[in-house]
Amino acid sequence: MATKSFRAGGGRVRAAIPIVLLVGLVILIGALQPSFLTADTLLVVMADTATLFILAAGITFVVMLGGIDLSIQAVASLSSVIVAVSLSRIGYWTFPETLLVGFVTGAFSGVVHVSLRIPSFIVTLATSGLVAAAALLLSQERSITIGESGRAYLSWITGRPFGMPSVIIIGALVAGAGIWLQSYTPFGRYSTAIGAGEAATWASGVKVNRQKVIAYSLSAGLASLAGILLTGRLSSGSPTLANELLLPAIAAVVVGGTSITGGAGGIGRTVIGALIISVVRVGMTFVGVDIFAQQIVFGTVLILAVAITIDRTKILIVK
Q1: Cα–Cα distance between 32 and 28 in angstroms, integer?
Q2: Which residues of the chain have pLDDT under 70?
Q3: Structure pTM?
Q4: 23 with 183: CB under 8 angstroms?
Q5: Domain that holds residue 184
Q6: What digits encode the pLDDT tens for the residues 81-123?
Q7: Residues 149/154/158/162 CA torsion (nearest 10 deg)
Q8: Would you call 236 helix, strand, or coil by DSSP?
């Protein structure tokens, strides 16, 4: 009984660490640069967080299964190119078309992963190469600026209803939908069970392969949405638009407290993780840290977060 209470207490402490870290970072950066705590700066941080969170939310569905998706940055970049190329021709139909490409790409990765029994990082890395090549071909290896006729269709991204950037509201809606999906649907419960013990979940009659395909489809679909939002904010598409976002997105998932081995965590924790990463990114800029040195910080944070959250009982031999 005492052991269970101790474990429960330890779990609550681990869950609280990201929140404490977030508050501490905001206070520290605010003390070093008081202008960081202004309303305009905090709105910028939240707007950046929204896009990063949507990208990271997709990976969360896969990581909860114990897998990984390395194709999200390529999917987001391809989505930006599709929007830039198609917006002036087909208007609002561009957005469902782009999302469909994302979902189909993710489903392809999932089907290859489960049918050929290839590790997820190999499958999604290969998918990333295919998608990146498609983006280069479609864009003719150049950035595409969206003209005035196309920008009129981006008002739902660039607008500020009630004085708040639309991307923040979109991010909040994705967070709410993701939390509901994980907490109140069979898919969410099965995902946690698969991550905690796939063999036992198979034995209980759950169609594990179906759950995996759904997770990869959601991951790429949300990456596509993130690419659409990036395109709207920058008014341009590029085959390399999201290339620097893979590491921050994975870091957001793990820093938030989702175990890289699966079975523990969720979208709610990824919200906190994405806020931490955004505060670190913007905060380092405020205090004058070189932009290239930021990747060193993200890499260090990712290693530390994995070391804290990984469930070593699932990995008897580390290779």
Answers
A1: 6
A2: 1-15, 291, 298, 302, 305-306, 308-319
A3: 0.90
A4: no
A5: 2-311
A6: 999 999 988 989 999 999 999 999 999 999 999 999 999 999 9
A7: 110
A8: strand
Amino acid, res. 157: I
Contact 53/271 with Cβ under 8 angstroms? Answer: yes
Cα-trace Rg, the chain: 20
Indicate whether 189 belongs to any domain.
yes
> 132-149, pLDDT tens digit by residue?
999 999 999 899 998 887
Cβ neighbours of residue 231 closer than 8 Å, sequence gap 6 or more: 79, 80, 83, 84, 146, 154, 237, 241
CA-based max dimension of the chain: 67
Q: Is the residue at 90 inside a domain?
A: yes
User: For residue 265, what is the enclosing H or E element?
Assistant: none
- Determine whether 25 is exposed, middle or buried from the number of CB atoms within 10 Å of its CB (0-12, 13-18, 19+): middle
Predicted local distance difference test score (pLDDT) of residue 7: 44
* Total structural domains within the chain: 1
Distance CA 191, CA 200 (A): 12
Pull the structure tokens for residue 306.
């994995």
